[in-house]
Amino acid sequence: MRFALVGNQNCGKTTLFNQLTGSNQHVGNFPGVTVDSKSGTIRSRWGDEVVDLPGIYSLRPYSAEEIVTRDFILDGKPDGIINIVDATSIERNLYLTLQMIEMQVPMVLALNMMDEVRANGGSVDTRKLSELTGIPVVPISAVRNEGIAELAEIAHQTAAAGRRPEIYDFCPPGPVHRCIHAVTHVVEDHAQRQKMSARWAAMNVIEGNEDIVRRLELDDNERELCEHSVVEMERETGLDRYAAIAEMRYAFIEAACAQAVKKPEESRERRRSRRIDDVLTHRVLAIPIFLCIMLAVFWLTFDVVGAWLSDILALGIQRLAELTDRALTAYGINPVVHSLVLDGIFGGVGNVVSFLPVILVLFFFLSMLEDTGYMARVAFVMDKLLRKIGLSGKSIVPMLIGFGCTVPAVMATRTLTSNRDRRMTILLTPFMSCSAKIPIYSVFVAAFFPRYGALAMGGLYAFGILMGILVALVSRKTLFRGNPNPFVMELPNYRMPSLRSTFQLMWDKARDFLHRAFTVIFVASLVIWFLQTFDSRLNVVTDNSGSLLAMLGGWIAPLFGPLGFGDWRVSTSLLAGFMAKEAVVSTLGVLTGGGDLAALFSVPSAAGFLVFTLLYTPCVAAVAAIRRELESPWKSLGVMVMQCVLAWLCAFGVYRLALLF
Predict the structure, then answer these.
(1) I want to staple 299 with a disulfide (CB 3.0 to 4.6 A). Which of 370, 454, 617, 656 is the partner?
(2) Which of 12-16, 305-309, 508-512, 581-585 is predicted most confidently?
(3) 356-371 burial: b if 16+ Cβ within 10 Å, else e
């Protein structure tokens, strides 16, 4: 059997997925963590499959994630649905439940966070709620792993028996009821041919969902009949079609909850969260507090914990390289192979791997902030500012993810409801400095700005954000005219961070980093070593300036002369950086033999180089993600060209300004 796991954002869906499958997907405490579907095998005697779909509030397709969920249920034909509901906010969560019941797919309702409801004096009569909704209801606590085995068993039995929801008409007699039945009668035959529920098809026709109307292939006469029924309903109720349908559903939900739910008192967690929010979301203090928190994170990462661990690892790699050097020399190995191992592998991959602790420490702090629920507050606080540049607060989520990696950040833009907002956020996301650039910053800051490490690092991140803001202001008046969509985001209670989730994220980042180091960066290092070792006749060169790499780098080096780093070795490293940003450091390590960067850069040109690497085109994986999301190779090429031109202009300005001082 295959099940769709569906629920609102922040209802514990990914936690339940982890408990069901034993998988270790990252669990976040703000919307946008699950931006695509993930699948796994349920740990039960049946071995069923479950697909974790994006968190949504409604099946009405406002955003890409709602379309993903709707289309999976409609076209993926799952054997059943596991609908997870937050029992502490049951009224809001049941709205999506009613919509899915109308689809007439076997379904079980997983009532999550029941431990919190009971702890605060509340209760839910699951048997009564099951009678009222016509589907099985199972109380669970995903965090505590309570009721998970029972849920898997009941879900399998429900799907195996093909037991569809027994109740699907939640509407009392009246104008809305008459409209729904009239439209259902018109679309019934069409819905059967498309293998969809007639009731659900009728609801979509009433709400004006053009995608479903096209699928039903209604003729003009049938469309007119349906529209006549809708207009009649609006006239009698005094409400538009959307409000009338929403009122009908919420009327049922309120009546059902009145019979089956004893509401809990305000929890200690809620009271504590409100007191904390009085400070962290304060009208004046919120943004200064956020900036101080991020500056503290950067200071601890780059000047204290991360730098210390990175120095230890670098020393270990250096000792290993020395031992390898002595062993190869004693063995009398061919000088070319000796150079390959020492200059190609240790000089390239080794330089990058030494910065693994810095990346892990940064993600440790970011994960802690995310798990507490603070990141959701950041989105709320930033909404007012982002609106001034033409975006809503929800855009901050992909941008924050962009500080880790641009690829998932671009994918996270699917959570935005407006196509305009989504494209504009994709354009700005690469300006958020990804973790792959940390090795570049660390090397250059340590070499040229050792007394101002945290300030230089924070300045680079701030400059990237500033450039993103300027680009947004220009784009708002040119490419992306119009206003952002309204911003809606719930603020979850503050919770203690999950160490398991935090260390899982760190492990994922370490695994991804090492995978890149020993695949893309390893290959890039070998290619760079080969090109700088041989000339055009494949003779070993005695001087790098006569190598193939010098010839290739020399073609583009003049472009960077005005920026203060016109050496062919620097331009070559920037080309390698298009494959993976970490390769910039590994390439320079190979080309300089691990030597001093002062031979290639002055302090002003190093400042310009940092700004250029901050702003120029992201890696090839990020470009591929941008192309996929924009659905246009030309638009993605335009993003690349725009970033390269902007990077050159800003680097030129910083270099010339630095020369004055």
Answers:
(1) 454
(2) 12-16
(3) bbbbbbbbbbbbbbbb
